[in-house]
Structure formats: structure tokens, C-alpha cells
Design brief:
single chain; 451 residues; alpha+beta; 6-stranded mixed sheet; 17 strands; 26% strand
Amino acid sequence: MQARRNTRTGLLAVIAAGIAAGATPQDPSAAGKSAVSYDEWFTDEAMRVDLMHTGSCTDSGYSLDGLAREPLWPGTRVYMKDPFGRGTHRTRVTDASTGTEIFSIGYATLFDEWTGTPEALAGVRRSMSESVRFPWPRKPVVLHIDRRQHDGTFSQIFELTIDPASHLIDGTVPYADLEVLDLGGGQEPDRAMDVVIVPEGYTERERSKMMADMSRFASVLLSHEPFASHRDLIHLRGVMAFSRQSGPSEPRKGLFRDTLVGASFNTFDSPRYLTVTHTRTLRQVAARAPYDVLFLMVNSGRYGGGGVYNQWSIFVSDNEYDEYVMIHEFGHHMAGLGDEYYDSAISTDEDLMYPPGIEPWEPNLTALIGGKRESAKWHDLIDPATPVPTPEKEKWATTVGAFEGAGYKAKGLFRPQLDCKMFHKGLVGFCHVCSMAIVQMMHYYAGEEIR
């Protein structure tokens, strides 16, 4: 059902299902810099649209939670249209009077993962909060949200006309008294990938630990490749925010903590899955600093974490694998990398997450349609002498190929190299394909050539 848009008020959300509006992921190396002029369409500020994602395993939609002004748009001012085509969803912004597309970006959602869980398949309906952000428009615009269909194309599922001059946009500045800690980097926000760390489960009495943890993990990020070689493109900051109680909630243990943003283990009843399902407070706190990508640092020694493309990544502070979790989950969040392991159970139906015979959108996963090397996204990196599929033998250990077993599936999905930080939690780094995807995103945020 499609409703009419009320352009007079400029704030009526319209659900419009089934409108084709997209294509499969594109090659970012072929994407030129946008012809859209940032200064013509946008100011220096940012707009945040807070949404509620509601539904079941068979249907879902968005409703408006609120509109907010953030003090600075720190993102790209060069690539105004998404050059990557990644994500389960896509934000598009068009000029309200002419329909000209002036901004787009892809993202993924925790809600989509939930739709394949036993709870969702049993018919339960849930709501989770999400936010989309884009530069503050100079004139009325229309926000479109598209969802990727199983065949890889996009269909519009939400539409909202926004008048930036409307008095209905929230003008408050929450958490304005929070201190921002500069953790390293010198580039201006529009010339860097701005990273913010938001602490969770740290009380006022743990201030010193919070600051030490922020500094340590900032150093961890900058010491891992490919971030280390591109540290001049990264600026890190931390927001000094406190919780009433220490540590996250752990429902399976009967532990429920009163914390800043409500992070909890046992997401989807998975013991190690640590996430936050209602994110408005997280966004309000993060907005105290310029940010393109967002870490939630959780004060806990238990193993766990999570990461959602262009939403957030979460890691724990005191586990023996905490550095691995931080970097691995950041790979999901900032570059849209998929999990490459296949021997660990998850709470979501794998065939619903990755339908057989459909090419995944993640840059490091392929279904190798037809068994042909040309169907792999990274086929131009595979040497003609390398067999495809590639045997899991020592001879090919450092070779880019197509190794079967990825995306939680032992069969039907392939990863680029034998080992990678997205494959297991050893000391191995990112594979060549994952590293390329990460570097492309850093260049995107910094406004440099994507290659």
C-alpha cells in the first residue's frame, strides 16, 4: 500500500513497498567522484533521522522516531553517491522539488539478522531502533530507504519528506556537558575517517580505567594493518560518558545493569552476541564528537561483541581476545566485511541470511555462481594458474583464490584466502581482499581517490 506524501508539513512518513530502485553492488574502483556539489546542496551540519524498524520474519517497515540536528557533518564531501553498493539497506536523499538525487549510502541492520531467528520464525514481532545520517540540506528533501531483495536489487520501503526549516525538528543538544578526549590524528573531519569511542558500563569511579582503555584501544587500531599504513587518514576521539552501574547486562546469568545505552550479551539468545538494540542514546552521546564510524567499548572481561555495517561495532575491554574482537567487529562495521568462518553456530537461519545461489553483497564473500572464477568479486586478483575452487592446502596458503567455506556455511560460499581475521581469532591479519575493502572506505571518508 502506498500513501500520498504530504509536502506541506514536510514531516509525514510514507511507506511505499515494492518500488524497484536499485542494482547489485558495483565496483568502487570504477566509481568516479560525485558530480553533486556538496556546497550547493548542504551546509556544514548533519541531520540524523531516528527510526523504529518493526515487523516479523515475513514483513517489516519503518516509522519515524525523531529528527535531530548534529553540529557537524564529518563524512565525505566528495563521494555524495554511494560508490560501493554494500548493505542490506540504502539511504537515498533527493531534492524535494526536482527529484535530483544528492546523497546515498548503504547500511545493514541488526533487525535483518533477527528475522531469521527461532523467535521471529515463530511469529513474534519486534521493534529495534536505527538511525540514518546525512549532511544538513539547504532545501526540503525526500529521504528514501530501500531494502535489498533476495535477487540483489533494491525496493523502496520508506519515504519521508523533510523541511530543514521545520520547527518540528528537535533543536536540543543532549549530553552537551560530556568531555571529548582526543586520542590521536590531526586531519580535519572532512579529510579523515573520524572514529569515536563511546564507553559502556563504566561508572564515575572507573574514570581512570575508562581513559586508559580508550587510549589502549586507539593504539590497537593504529597498530593493525591496513590501518597502521593509513594512520594519517584516521582521527580518533572518545566521549567521556558514564553509567550508573558497571558492566553490561548478562540475561542468562540474571544480571541486568543500569548502563548508558543498555548493551547486553545474549542477543538473539546467543551467549556471546553483545549488542545494543535501542540506539538513540548512543547516537546522542556519539554526536558530541565528529564521527564517521562508531565503537562501543564495553567494560567487561567476557568474550563477545558485534558489528553492523554503517551502524556500530561493539567490543569488550578485558578479555584475552579483546583486541581481536575490536578489529574483527570493526571490519563488519566500517567495511561491510562478512564472517568467513563456518564451524560455529549462530542464532540466525543461514539460508535466510545467505539464500543459496545468490551472490552476497559483502566484498569478501562470493557464491561463485556457475563455479566460474569470473563470478567472484575479486576475480581480477586471482592468478590464472590458481585453481578455482581453490584447495585448502599449504601450497595456496598465501594465494588469493576462492576457498569454500564462508558466511557460516561449509558449502556454497567462498572466501578469498585460506586465512584472515574475518575467518578465525588467531594472530593472522586481514586477507588481501578485506584489506582492500578497508582501505577503500578510508579513502572514501577522507575524500581521496578510491582504488
